[in-house]
Amino acid sequence: MVQYTLVQSPEVILTVPGKDSVKAREKAMDQLIELMDAGELQTELSDGFAPQQFIEVKEPTANPSPEEDAVTHAVQVLSNLATLKLKLQDSRTEALQVRAKIDILFSDEPVSEEEIASLKDGFKALKTYAQANLRYKEARSQAEDARSVLDRALNATETEPKASKKGEN
C-alpha cells in the first residue's frame, strides 16, 4: 500500500494498493476527483493538479536492533556459503579431470597438440574450482560464527521463562 497527500491539504490521505508508481498515482488521482465531486475536499485546486504533485506519505521505520542486524548478517553469510558450496560442487568433477591431465606436462613422454589444447581448455574450469574452493573455505569459517549467532537468536525464545498460570502448584 502507498499513501499520498497534497501540499494544499496535508490532512487528506489517499491510500492505493501497490508501490509508488504512475499507475498508483493515477488511482490516487481518481480518489481525489471523487472527493472533490462529493464536496469532501475543502481545498481549491484552481491552478490544476497533476498526479506528479502528490506527496508520498512514508511510515517511519524503526531502526533494527544490533541483534537483528547480527541475525541479518548471519543469514547473508550462510546464504553466501550455500551459493559457494553449489558452485564448488558444480565445478569439481571437471576440475579434477583436468588436474589429472596436468601430470602429462611433467613427463618426458611426447604430447600431442590435441592433448595440450584439451588441457588448456580445462584450465578455466580448474581455476574456477580452485578459486571457489578458497572462497568456500574462507566463507565456511565465517559461517561458523554466523551459525552461532542464529543459534543464540533461535534459542532466545526457548530459554525465556514461561509465565506461570494462577492456581497451579
UniProtKB/TrEMBL annotation:
Biased composition (Basic and acidic residues): 139-150, 159-169
Region Disordered, annotated ranges: 139-169
Domain of life: Bacteria
Name recorded for this polypeptide: Chromosome segregation ATPase
Source organism: Stenomitos frigidus AS-A4
